[in-house]
Design goal:
Layout (H helix, E strand, L loop, with lengths): L2 E8 L8 H18 L4 E5 L6 H11 L3 E5 L4 H5 L4 H11 L4 E3 L8 H15 L2 E6 L13 H9 L15 E6 L7
Parallel strand pairs: 1-2, 1-5, 2-3, 3-4, 5-6
Helix pairs in contact: 1-2, 5-6
């Protein structure tokens, strides 16, 4: 039996009134992938940040997928990027994870850690679900953010080191407007 890996990248704060539509679209994408690979073990990779990461993780768990959690930095440091309620959501999802990956480089720093985990997900996934508003104008302020990672995936010719085996993931873009502008 082979493994099929789905990665997720997306905004942390999605407009609340759009979440039911987005959940429906994510579920449709997950179902399509399941149908394409009926004999595969399907794994979702998500860093479990609030918003898109957690939304997709819960839906994948409901579909019976395995959850792998690549973190951009050690967990204690990562949780500092979230408030107490958001941290509880991460910890709850971690209890469902069959694998947790933390970078061996302990001092990457926040921007580099986020870039590294986004590249790791892009490199090791067969599919990417990008819950994103499609806007890139602020991507330089957020290395490793959704816009940055989608750009890296789409421009494999510019970033061939991302795909050493010429295996680029299939990208599903699900429009996910932000709750507020950045």
């Amino acid at each position: 039996m082979n493994n099929i890996t789905i990665g997720v990248t997306g905004h942390r704060y999605i407009k609340a009134n759009k979440i039911p539509t987005i959940e429906h679209q994510v579920t449709a994408c997950l179902s399509e992938i399941i149908c394409k690979h009926p004999d595969a073990t399907i794994i979702l990779q998500s860093p479990l940040a609030v918003g898109a990461d957690q939304l997709v993780a819960w839906l994948a768990i409901q579909e019976g997928m395995k959850l792998h959690v690549p973190l951009p930095m050690p967990l204690a440091d990562y949780l500092q990027d979230f408030n107490e309620e958001e941290s509880k959501g991460i910890k709850e999802l971690l209890s469902h994870a069959s694998k947790i990956w933390v970078p061996s480089e302990k001092n990457l720093g926040r921007p580099n850690g986020y870039v590294m985990v986004g590249c790791y997900i892009a490199q090791t996934s067969d599919y990417i679900l990008a819950l994103w508003d499609g806007k890139n104008e602020k991507e330089k302020e957020f290395p490793g953010g959704t816009g940055h990672i989608v750009k890296l995936i789409k421009q494999q010719g510019i970033f061939p080191y991302l795909y050493p085996n010429n295996k680029q993931p299939v990208l599903y873009h699900i429009l996910a407007p932000r709750e507020f502008s950045i």
